[in-house]
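Task 17 of the worksheet. Students: predict the tertiary structure of the chain below and write it out as C-alpha coordinates. Keep your answer in the requested format; marks are given for formatting as well as content.
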Amino acid sequence: MRSGVVRFKTAHSEVPGSRVASVNRATGEVIGYTAKFRQRVFDATPFVKVYGEGLDAVLSLKSTGQVVMKALVRMMMASKNTAEFNLSRQDIGAIGFPMSPANYHRGVNELIKLGLITRVSSRTGRVAVNRLLLWNGDRSKA
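Model answer:
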Protein backbone atom coordinates (compact mmCIF):
# COMPACT_ATOMS: atom_id res chain seq x y z
CA MET A 1 0.00 0.00 0.00
CA ARG A 2 1.28 3.43 -0.91
CA SER A 3 1.66 5.94 1.85
CA GLY A 4 1.03 9.64 1.61
CA VAL A 5 -1.89 11.96 1.28
CA VAL A 6 -4.57 11.79 -1.38
CA ARG A 7 -7.12 14.54 -2.09
CA PHE A 8 -10.79 13.71 -2.67
CA LYS A 9 -13.05 16.23 -4.32
CA THR A 10 -16.66 16.62 -3.34
CA ALA A 11 -19.38 16.24 -5.96
CA HIS A 12 -19.55 20.01 -6.35
CA SER A 13 -15.82 20.73 -6.22
CA GLU A 14 -16.01 23.27 -9.04
CA VAL A 15 -18.45 25.41 -7.07
CA PRO A 16 -16.74 28.22 -5.11
CA GLY A 17 -16.81 27.47 -1.39
CA SER A 18 -16.90 23.69 -1.93
CA ARG A 19 -14.49 21.60 0.12
CA VAL A 20 -11.72 19.22 -0.92
CA ALA A 21 -10.67 16.62 1.68
CA SER A 22 -7.04 15.57 2.29
CA VAL A 23 -6.98 11.93 3.46
CA ASN A 24 -4.06 9.85 4.80
CA ARG A 25 -3.84 6.80 2.47
CA ALA A 26 -2.47 4.49 5.14
CA THR A 27 -5.04 5.14 7.86
CA GLY A 28 -7.97 6.69 5.98
CA GLU A 29 -7.91 9.58 8.43
CA VAL A 30 -9.17 12.92 7.13
CA ILE A 31 -6.30 15.33 7.69
CA GLY A 32 -8.07 18.51 6.68
CA TYR A 33 -10.12 20.39 4.13
CA THR A 34 -9.37 23.09 1.66
CA ALA A 35 -11.92 25.32 0.01
CA LYS A 36 -12.18 27.18 -3.27
CA PHE A 37 -13.26 30.78 -3.24
CA ARG A 38 -13.79 33.26 -6.02
CA GLN A 39 -13.51 36.99 -5.53
CA ARG A 40 -16.40 38.96 -6.96
CA VAL A 41 -16.73 42.68 -7.54
CA PHE A 42 -20.04 44.30 -6.60
CA ASP A 43 -21.63 47.53 -7.69
CA ALA A 44 -21.68 50.05 -4.85
CA THR A 45 -24.88 51.75 -6.07
CA PRO A 46 -27.80 50.94 -3.73
CA PHE A 47 -30.74 49.18 -5.37
CA VAL A 48 -33.85 47.16 -4.59
CA LYS A 49 -34.79 44.26 -6.84
CA VAL A 50 -38.49 43.92 -7.69
CA TYR A 51 -39.55 40.63 -9.26
CA GLY A 52 -42.39 40.37 -11.82
CA GLU A 53 -45.24 39.57 -9.42
CA GLY A 54 -43.92 42.19 -7.00
CA LEU A 55 -43.94 44.80 -9.76
CA ASP A 56 -47.63 44.14 -10.42
CA ALA A 57 -48.35 44.60 -6.72
CA VAL A 58 -46.26 47.79 -6.46
CA LEU A 59 -47.94 49.34 -9.51
CA SER A 60 -51.39 48.67 -8.07
CA LEU A 61 -50.73 50.52 -4.78
CA LYS A 62 -52.96 53.43 -3.79
CA SER A 63 -51.43 56.70 -2.56
CA THR A 64 -51.05 55.71 1.12
CA GLY A 65 -49.55 52.36 0.12
CA GLN A 66 -47.13 54.17 -2.19
CA VAL A 67 -45.89 56.39 0.64
CA VAL A 68 -45.30 53.38 2.91
CA MET A 69 -43.63 51.56 0.00
CA LYS A 70 -41.30 54.51 -0.66
CA ALA A 71 -40.32 54.55 3.02
CA LEU A 72 -39.75 50.78 2.96
CA VAL A 73 -37.57 51.00 -0.17
CA ARG A 74 -35.51 53.77 1.45
CA MET A 75 -35.04 51.56 4.53
CA MET A 76 -34.11 48.60 2.31
CA MET A 77 -31.49 50.66 0.46
CA ALA A 78 -29.92 51.71 3.77
CA SER A 79 -29.43 48.12 4.97
CA LYS A 80 -28.82 45.54 2.25
CA ASN A 81 -29.33 41.79 2.65
CA THR A 82 -31.94 42.39 5.36
CA ALA A 83 -35.52 41.15 5.26
CA GLU A 84 -36.95 42.62 8.49
CA PHE A 85 -37.48 46.30 9.16
CA ASN A 86 -39.03 48.54 11.80
CA LEU A 87 -41.84 50.11 9.82
CA SER A 88 -43.60 51.96 12.63
CA ARG A 89 -45.26 55.30 11.97
CA GLN A 90 -42.49 57.04 13.93
CA ASP A 91 -39.77 55.31 11.87
CA ILE A 92 -41.45 56.33 8.61
CA GLY A 93 -41.80 59.92 9.85
CA ALA A 94 -38.14 60.01 10.92
CA ILE A 95 -36.94 59.35 7.35
CA GLY A 96 -39.15 62.04 5.82
CA PHE A 97 -42.58 60.46 5.35
CA PRO A 98 -44.85 61.80 8.13
CA MET A 99 -48.32 60.19 8.09
CA SER A 100 -51.48 60.31 10.12
CA PRO A 101 -52.25 57.11 12.07
CA ALA A 102 -55.19 56.28 9.77
CA ASN A 103 -53.15 56.69 6.57
CA TYR A 104 -50.25 54.74 8.06
CA HIS A 105 -52.49 51.77 8.92
CA ARG A 106 -54.19 51.89 5.51
CA GLY A 107 -50.82 51.88 3.73
CA VAL A 108 -49.30 49.07 5.80
CA ASN A 109 -52.47 46.96 5.51
CA GLU A 110 -52.41 47.42 1.72
CA LEU A 111 -48.83 46.15 1.51
CA ILE A 112 -49.78 43.18 3.69
CA LYS A 113 -52.89 42.44 1.60
CA LEU A 114 -50.82 42.44 -1.62
CA GLY A 115 -48.26 40.09 -0.03
CA LEU A 116 -45.32 42.51 -0.19
CA ILE A 117 -44.74 42.37 3.59
CA THR A 118 -45.87 40.39 6.62
CA ARG A 119 -46.22 41.71 10.12
CA VAL A 120 -43.64 40.28 12.53
CA SER A 121 -44.71 42.38 15.52
CA SER A 122 -47.75 44.63 15.50
CA ARG A 123 -46.65 46.23 18.78
CA THR A 124 -43.28 47.47 17.46
CA GLY A 125 -44.16 47.84 13.77
CA ARG A 126 -41.60 45.22 12.72
CA VAL A 127 -42.32 43.75 9.28
CA ALA A 128 -40.67 41.18 7.02
CA VAL A 129 -40.34 41.72 3.28
CA ASN A 130 -41.56 38.93 0.99
CA ARG A 131 -38.27 37.85 -0.60
CA LEU A 132 -40.10 36.30 -3.54
CA LEU A 133 -41.36 39.75 -4.58
CA LEU A 134 -38.73 42.25 -3.32
CA TRP A 135 -35.07 42.01 -2.35
CA ASN A 136 -32.06 44.20 -1.76
CA GLY A 137 -28.47 43.07 -1.84
CA ASP A 138 -25.28 43.07 -3.86
CA ARG A 139 -25.28 43.30 -7.62
CA SER A 140 -22.36 41.49 -9.21
CA LYS A 141 -20.37 43.40 -11.84
CA ALA A 142 -19.51 41.46 -14.97
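Marker's comment: Residues 7-15 have pLDDT under 50 and may be disordered. The beta strands are 5-9, 19-24, 30-35, 42-43, 49-50, 84-86, 117-121, 126-129, 134-135, 139-140.
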